[in-house]
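Sample A.
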Amino acid sequence: ALMQAAESYQRLLGNELLLTFSNGESVRLIPKAGHFKHLAGLHKLTDLDFIYHEQRASALFTKALRGDISQADLNCSRYFNAEAKERLESLSRISEVLAIGSLAVYGFDRKICKASVRFKSSILFFKDDGHQFFITFGIAQDQAGAYYYPETIFYRFDSAYIAGQNIVSITNVEIKPNKK
């Protein structure tokens, strides 16, 4: 699962995604290697020194991609639980939620959400897995407001983050090499 997640995320790196929604709005999404540690849930594995003490989050992504960190390594952590496994599975399917026709909550409203909210994301992409299982991928704006970055990904067994929200669909995805 770790290798699949790293490979899926690698396909986004080095690119800027211009996503256009059915409400006419567009956003620039710029994924970076340093986001992988959090998205994959590796930051929660505090009992694994080789992960916890790695100062550069992007280095963990590189190590996962090269196979220097394996699924067997993650399984050794007492914190590698169902939530962590679901994050990796969801991350390996990231391209599914960023495709034309996929759905998103645009302008996520915390006040009407039926669950606890600990993220900054204002756009939540989601995919109904067919049994009320939602892969949810959240993006937040950078401090300058110039672009969006991947902030969170999780698997949900209900529509708590989606119900009553402003739902739009992706009408266009333009992928350009990131110049930075």
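Sample B, a different protein:
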Amino acid sequence: VQLSRIKGSKDHKGKTSYSKVPDKDKPPTKGLSQSPPLVLFFGNITKWGPQADGFVYSDDFTDKYDATGLVETHVHHCDDLDFKSKALAKGFDPFTSPAQALDNGDPKKSNHGGEALLVHSYLFSIPIETDVMDRILALCPGPRRFISCELRVKGVSILLIVPYFWAGEGLSARSLAIMS
């Protein structure tokens, strides 16, 4: 139990003894390391632009979250390199899946989706192995609607996945296919 305060009390003979009592504001950490928790953020931003950029790269935000998952960035594949370059300059390892063009009109203006995973560079994150990703994509026909990476923390590999499900369908067959 995490202990941080000392409390004095008198026994039946009037003798004062002091003991540590748990801090009520902090959860017990018995058996756990004293490392800070990994804090993740996930959000549907509707479109990457100046407002989302200013929010995600603000000092308050970057100090609070270790990794950020974003869907519906609408970042076209032509702009993906610029998106990644800025993320790298801001201290993130970026993993992205560009928005998918729609059949009607200009693909830079008429697209949907786009996923991004931004992991602080002080953490060890790597892309999913190519052969594993190839198997996953073979099971999920159609355009990719997720981004993922492997995060290694204290000898443990954590798979971070940011899926973008079909809107308004609930757990439809198409959304379930993304999860598979």
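Observation for Sample B: Helices lie at 50-56, 59-64, 80-89, 130-139, 173-179.
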